[in-house]
Amino acid sequence: MNNNTPNNNTSPIQLKHLLMFILLAAIWGASFMFTRVASPEFGAFAFASLRLGLAAIVLFPILIMAGNWKHLRDDFWLIFFISIFNSAMPFVMFAYATLYLEAGTTSVLNSFVPMLSGLIAHLYFKDYLSRSQQAGLVIGIIGVGILMMDRMGFGNNTILPLCACLIACLSYAISANITKRKLSHVPPKVLAASTMLVAGSLLIPFGFATWPETNPSLSAWGAVVAVAVLSTAIAYLLFFELIKNIGPTRTVSVTLLIPIFGIFWGALLLNETITWTIIVGTIVIITGAYLSLSLKLPSRRR
Fold it and tell me: Which of 54, 77, 251, 274 is 20 to 30 A from residue 199's alpha carbon, by CA?
């Protein structure tokens, strides 16, 4: 390794990257609000297929640039697998969950992704977490638990939506580990465009088959366009740009901030309730995110 290569996980974060990090958390937090608005009118499959299809159209120019299409061709089956687990399945699961759960609640449940990802890496890939990582993630998960205290009841048809959220989180965690180990040679932007195209192609038939009989409202259509362009296409470009500049570990910690924005947008625009547990949980999550952003990775054994 070139000793002059900067370590993105230990070097100071520039202000522009910090602002991008916060913007990404806000955009992804808003995705749960958009889903909450649109999925009841479209249904889970139609909504997810539109989200992926529109995002694929926005990102498609990346694939037709010189040399990029060959990555999709050469690694098609791995990209096919990642498209299911990183896009198609979680998008459908969260769209179904928001039929019954508030936007703030689903954004909170999304915070289980780093915990499950770390657990999978630890158990199956021997990729052990440093003490700082462990402390930051544990504190973040405690904050998530505080946020959930008065936002979920286990009756009124909430068990299946809860399970759907956990399946989505597990799906994200599996795809993150496989992507890191099997597709690191594919440029991140190309991988984002490829997975949107493949996942969208897979879901579009299901979207047509389950298309609602009543034409969705303009607000629902607006929410679909917003979640596809802003919270999917643009967010993925921001995400991969941050991975390049501040490293994957710091970037993934954005998941701990998403609930804060998810709850904020839900309260501001959907009249969802903010309680004292939300305030306390938010402070705890920020603490956990700070530790995750400040951590130093242990030396890799050879």
Answer: 251
The pLDDT of residue 245 is above 50: yes
> Could you identify the residue written with the tokens 């993150």?
176
Q: What is the residue type of 147? A: L
Q: How far is CA 273 from CA 39, 102, 142, in A?
A: 21, 10, 20
Query: Tell me: the pLDDT tens digits for 64-114?
Result: 887 788 888 899 999 999 999 989 999 999 999 999 888 887 888 887 777
| The total number of residues written for the chain in this structure | 302
Measured between alpha carbons, how far is 255 from 260 in angstroms, rounded to an integer? Answer: 10
**Cβ-based neighbour number of residue 4 at 10 Å:** 5
The pTM of the full predicted model, rounded to 2 decimals, is 0.81
Cα angle at 176 between 79 and 117, to 5 degrees?
Answer: 150
Residue closest to 258 by CA, chosen among 280, 233, 231, 298: 231
The whole-angstrom separation of Cα 243 and Cα 237 is 10
Number of H helices and number of E strands within the chain?
15, 0
**Residue position matching structure tokens 């299409």:** 69
Q: At what angle do helices 218-228 and 15-42 cross, to 10 degrees?
A: 140
- Residue pair 113/173 in contact (Cβ under 8 Å)? The answer is yes
Distance CA 43, CA 50 (A): 11
Per DSSP, 255 falls in state G
Nearest residue to 131 via CA among 118, 142, 145, 143:
118
Buried b or exposed e, range 120-143, using 16+ CB within 10 angstroms:
bbeeeeeeebeebbebbbebbbeb
